[in-house]
Amino acid sequence: MPDATGLELTAHELRDHSAESILGTDFQRGRAVLLAAPDHITDVLAALMGKGYTFLASLHGVDYYPEEPRLGVLYELLDMHEVDRITVKIRVGIDDPRVPTATGLFPGAEFPEREVYDMFGVVFDGHPDLRRILMPEDFEGFPQRRDFPVGGEPVLFTFNEEQSYGKWQ
Amino acid sequence: MALDTADYRKREESITYAAETAGQGQTHELLTLNIGPHHPATHGVLRLLATLEGEVVRDIKPIIGYVHTGIEKTAEQKSYWKVIPVIERMDYLSYYFNAMAFCGAVETLVDVEVPPRAQYLRVIHLELNRIMSHLVWLGTSALDLGAISMFWYCFRERETILDLFEMSSGQRMHTRYFQVGGVIEDIPRGFATKLRKFLADMPTRADQYADLLEKNQIVLERLRGICPLDEETLLKIGVTGPLLRAAGNPWDLRKAAPYSSYDKFEFKIPVGTVGDNYDRYRVRHAEIYESVKIISQALEGLPEGPYITPDRKIALPPRHELATSMEALIHHFKLVTEGFRVPAGEAYYPIEGPRGELGCFVRADGSAKPARVHMRDPSFVHLQALEPMVKGAYIADLIATLAMLDPILGGIDR
User: Fold this and answer.
1) Which of B70, B347, B363 is nearest residue A143 as measured by Cβ atoms?
2) Contacts of B251 in chain A (CB under 8 A)
3) DSSP, res B321
4) Does residue A21 contact residue A33 with C-beta atoms inside 8 Å?
5) What is the pLDDT of residues B169-192, one digit of tens each?
6) Which of B352, B302, B370 is nearest to B78 (CA)?
């Protein structure tokens, strides 16, 4: 992990490149987080890649309900030579969550981005194959959102089979 | 919602149907073959949509989600200590690792120190689990190559490990042994003796596996030089663990960023050279010996002291205190009913699982339940490497490569 000063320096460097790309920094419990603007995420990731964070360890979504903007996408980057981790976080609203894809930089982001789309409904522009991955392809709703009810899945019997979401006409 | 077949095709439009040229103005006809979801060679409920030209794989799409159980969603409804049993069921062959990643993330958030004895006990169980996972992998992979006796031998040793797990925790699988702040109980009397016997036997057994497999011409021809993938491509996809090490990159979080006292032990990181199926087999096989070394060092150097943090706000008080201490009773009641509260924050805790980097992301909102739990499961990421590995290979090698990839569908689907 870069220390708090290192994180600020990194943020400054990225801001020099494009002033509005970094919205803020957060350093807690040894975890360095850069809050990036969704539109600039590809540039930020590319710049960090140039600084040695070449490995995308994890990409996952978070629903920050009731905070606004609600949805978050987190990129856990790793520098394998310095053994250093940094997190890039973007926040998007729930109405039209659109984020440029990171698959151009990290081909391995394909499945994780599909998972975030599947679970939170974040659309990754430019993704080669954005489909549901874990839920059935005709599923409605985004189950990992905090307002999605638990146990909301009806048990299928013959009498209510017609109402099921999976009933093909 | 109305869906017709055209719409269904659209959802699968990324699959290549383009015909291959065969020369003289002719084209090869491509065949789309559905493998799975229920197929003994897919190591779980995995569906593969393969486009074949004769016997050669031209394109492959893994389709997953058949064992998606929403564990991450379930975890949000439970207090932190109740999450451990569900999270162990994600990757069902590496339950100690799942629990370790989750407990590590929560321990980072509540800032609790794990006593040294608990760290060593964790290492013993983690490495036993790693051997157990590799044994299941070796047995089932050999089965895929047509060698059934390996399966019996591997499962014989696996039984011994499961017996050890049963001794220390009462359960053979999904043991719920790791707790936030330490482990639930000290190892019982007789555990060390039984473990020492296992540690003395295991290297010989592993030698025997090598004798059985590595002098077998059929196995060698099925593995050597088959479906290699270079280090650069693997890193781009995000592959870690034995698959990356087989390609020559010695990345191992136990060495690179030691957690749970791994820096106290002496062990080597086995690496391969070209990253073909043979290297993948050799690396995992060699890891069994290294794990044995780590366990014996941890067992001989097991420090005295508490096996769980003495912080009563996080760990349950010992049973005998409940009869005499009012405070212990209150703590016990609070922990069992509400659970402990975790200060708001986020943590990502990566560890080296048997398949690669297993990272648990936990977001706490200050309540007694996590606001988000996400497991970065290595199998999920590694499945993307299947296509570059098997493109242009024979379909029989696809099965062998899938076995060497070691995907656990419980971890992929969660």
Assistant:
1) B70
2) 80
3) G
4) no
5) 988 989 889 999 899 989 999 999
6) B370
Report which secondary-structure segment, H or E, holds A43.
Answer: helix A41-50
Over the stretch A69-90, which tens digit does the pLDDT of each residue have?
Answer: 889 999 999 998 888 899 999 9
Cβ proximity of B259 and B97 under 8 Å: no
Q: Which B-chain residues 234-293 have CB contacts (< 8 A) with chain A?
A: 235-239, 251, 256-257
Helix axes B277-300 and B395-405, enclosed angle (nearest 10): 20
The pLDDT confidence band at residue B364, using thresholds 50, 70 and 90, is very high
What is the predicted pLDDT for the residue at A169? Answer: 45
Spell out which residues of chain B touch residue A163, defining contact as CB-CB under 8 Å.
none
Tokens of B367: 């309540």
Cα–Cα distance for residue pair B403/B143, rounded to 1 Å: 9
DSSP string of B189-218? TTHHHHHHHHHHHHHHHHHHHHHHHHT-HH
Cα(B29)–Cα(B53) distance, integer angstroms: 7
DSSP 8-state secondary structure symbol assigned to residue B394: B
The neighbouring-strand residues paired with B62 are B48
Non-local (6+) Cβ contacts of B245 within 8 A are: B251, B252, B269, B270, B271, B272, B283
Cβ contact B407:B92 at 8 Å: no
When pLDDT is averaged across residues B66-91 and rounded to a whole number, the result is 91
State how far the alpha carbon of B178 is from the alpha carbons of B109, B113, B118, B132, B169, in Å: 17, 14, 9, 17, 10
Token pair 């064992």 is found at: B67
**Which segments of B215-249 does DSSP mark as H helices, in order?**
217-223, 231-237, 242-246
